[in-house]
């Protein structure tokens, strides 16, 4: 399999909400994955790292610079002995006068200390150069990088997804590096990675699990059991749900929740089909459907909640959002100083 094969790319492709990130977290953390990678590395040192692009995160969480910095940090964390070498390589790249230095020298010249103190930000070109030198220097080591959410990458300047793909393909050409990548099946990624023999269409993998999930949820509902005996047409509903979701786990969770409400209300089979067919086929359209269903009277408040959530790097507690109405009445509420004391009943009301 890929874990024991020569250095190559493994591409996991799937629709939004199909479970790519969940699978990547599982794979990158599973002990069996590390066992197989250690067998691949043999007597050589194994270095692993992972990065998850996130388009709602900080600039570094959705940029190529953030990717390279994160992977470099993991390499240095696992191989602290090369930190000196990395500093020397970077200094030689930034300052032509220092290019006569031997990167293997044990002593850092005074001007190098000054240069590194002033240069906290790494450029894309610096990072790629350091990677090339480091991978060649650590040729007796094996590297495996798990990189998720390529479609959530946000371009920096003139960079676009093609530039990201180019960088990844260059990394994959090094004989001691292998990459496990995950993204939506966009053309730019299909053109770059379909030629590899290691490609997984995630919906093909999850279809049986989705069927079991839907069947289990319906069969545990008392009303479904009763309706199934009285109206055999209900037996086809599970298969219809699985066909409609097309392998998107998040979508099936949301739809099944609504259909179970229909069972609770004793909806006839015709109404259950109407419930199912009212949902858009893809997740983004479903979210748009949810937003469109918000009464116009509440949309201003909803927009404020979204703006607050998007402006935060870390999630806020649920009770914080309960003060949105209070801020509308008193914009200086949060500047008054002191703590706001809430009784249990006040929290329940919020």
TrEMBL record:
<dbReference type="InterPro" id="IPR027417">
    <property type="entry name" value="P-loop_NTPase"/>
</dbReference>
<feature type="domain" description="Nephrocystin 3-like N-terminal">
    <location>
        <begin position="1"/>
        <end position="88"/>
    </location>
</feature>
<dbReference type="InterPro" id="IPR056884">
    <property type="entry name" value="NPHP3-like_N"/>
</dbReference>
<dbReference type="Pfam" id="PF24883">
    <property type="entry name" value="NPHP3_N"/>
</dbReference>
<protein>
    <recommendedName>
        <fullName>Nephrocystin 3-like N-terminal domain-containing protein</fullName>
    </recommendedName>
</protein>
<keyword id="KW-0677">Repeat</keyword>
């Amino acid at each position: 399999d890929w874990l024991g094969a020569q250095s190559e790319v493994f591409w996991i492709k799937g629709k939004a909400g199909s479970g790519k990130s969940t699978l990547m977290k599982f794979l990158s953390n599973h002990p069996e994955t590390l066992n197989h990678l250690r067998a691949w590395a043999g007597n050589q040192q194994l270095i692993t790292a992972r990065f998850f692009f996130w388009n709602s995160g900080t600039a570094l969480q959705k940029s190529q610079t953030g990717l390279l910095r994160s992977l470099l940090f993991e390499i240095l964390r696992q191989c602290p002995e090369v930190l000196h070498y990395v500093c020397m390589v970077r200094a030689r790249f930034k300052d032509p006068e220092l290019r006569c230095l031997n990167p293997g020298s044990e002593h850092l010249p005074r001007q190098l200390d000054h240069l590194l103190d002033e240069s906290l930000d790494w450029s894309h070109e610096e990072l790629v150069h350091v990677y090339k030198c480091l991978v060649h220097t650590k040729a007796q080591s094996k590297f495996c990088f798990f990189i998720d959410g390529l479609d959530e990458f946000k371009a920096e300047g003139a960079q676009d997804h093609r530039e990201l793909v180019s960088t990844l393909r260059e990394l994959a050409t090094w004989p001691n590096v292998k990459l496990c990548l995950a993204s939506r099946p966009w053309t730019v990624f299909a053109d770059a990675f379909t030629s590899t023999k290691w490609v997984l269409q995630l919906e093909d993998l999850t279809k049986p699990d989705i069927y079991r999930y839907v069947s289990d949820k319906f069969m545990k509902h008392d009303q479904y059991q009763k309706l199934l005996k009285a109206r055999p047409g209900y037996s086809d509903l599970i298969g219809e749900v699985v066909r409609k979701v097309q392998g998107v786990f998040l979508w099936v969770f949301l739809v099944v929740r609504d259909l179970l409400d229909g069972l609770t209300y004793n909806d006839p089979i015709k109404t259950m089909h109407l419930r199912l067919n009212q949902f858009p086929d893809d997740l983004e359209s479903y979210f748009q459907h949810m937003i469109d269903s918000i009464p116009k009277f509440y949309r201003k408040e909803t927009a404020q909640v979204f703006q607050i959530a998007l402006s935060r790097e870390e999630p806020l507690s649920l009770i914080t959002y309960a003060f949105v109405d209070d801020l509308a009445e008193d914009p200086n509420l949060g500047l008054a100083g002191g703590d706001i004391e809430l009784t249990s009943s006040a929290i329940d009301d919020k």
